[in-house]
Amino acid sequence: MRPTVALAAILLTATAAVAQQTPARSPATPPAKDKPAAAKAADKSADKASAAPAPDALAAGLAALESKDFSTALARFNAAFNAGAPDGAFYLGRMVELGIGVEASFDKARVLYLAAADKGSAKAMNRLGLMHYRGEGVLQDYAAAQELICEAAGKGDADAAFNCAGLFAEGRGVDKDPAKARAWYEKAAAENNIGALNALGFIWRDGLGVDRDPGKAADYFGRAAALGNPVALFELGAMYEAGLGLPPDLMKAHVHYNLAAARQHPGGTEALARVTAGLSPEDVTKAQAEAKAWRAAR
């Protein structure tokens, strides 16, 4: 059973986090009516954050976080949670856990995650589940990890679906079940989760609980490679080199190994040298030009 946290406790924690970013007013500070225009604008912005609908406040918090305006991000996430968006507390927790804009505190972050999970945040459930899986600040407990992570997966969180699949694949907290693992990987892959795309690539390439299908493996690796993932780029290069699931093509193998090596895949440089030796100088030049022109989908 997931523990709950009183709403007042989380509001105090979140407010304290934001307060750390705001210096206390000096006794000499002029009254509000004498504030300069910039200060009045800041007050209006803060009031607007508190009044904003939950999705708007959450989006504003993420935008502020992206632009490294951490005090605004903290305020927006707090406002989002107060307005009914559980993920507001999750993102506050991430900032507190990682020390982004506030002093890092694992214990305070966990309180925020618990509050978010209590209100239904799948992201927070997944993070709490990983804590139990790894034994981070709590006893390692695979059963508790599975309950939290797979509940989050059931709510549609792609990262949680990937993690839930891994639990079924490994038999951690549940009986080992390759079919259920594959089903959860497929749900995560539908959201372009790179880990799930690669996992399915290996499942179909190696016949893990299924009949081998290199063509399906190439499709999954291809989707992850298009997103710039070095593992998928390398595996796709290997499939082109071997003609496994794809027509043999040393130039395409060269392109993919080159891209994988540039992204620091540990086997990329050696594989690149191997296929380079089998190509003409002209083909190497063409392959290098193709790699230079390549762009990831995101």
TrEMBL record:
This is Sel1 repeat family protein. PANTHER family: ACTIVATOR OF C KINASE PROTEIN 1-RELATED, CHITIN SYNTHASE REGULATORY FACTOR 2-RELATED. Residues 19-46 are annotated as: Disordered. Residues 1-19 form the signal peptide. The keyword Zinc-finger does not apply. Residues 32-46 have a biased composition (Basic and acidic residues). InterPro entries: Mitotic_Regulator (IPR052945), Sel1-like (IPR006597), TPR-like_helical_dom_sf (IPR011990). The keyword Transmembrane helix does not apply. Keywords: Signal.
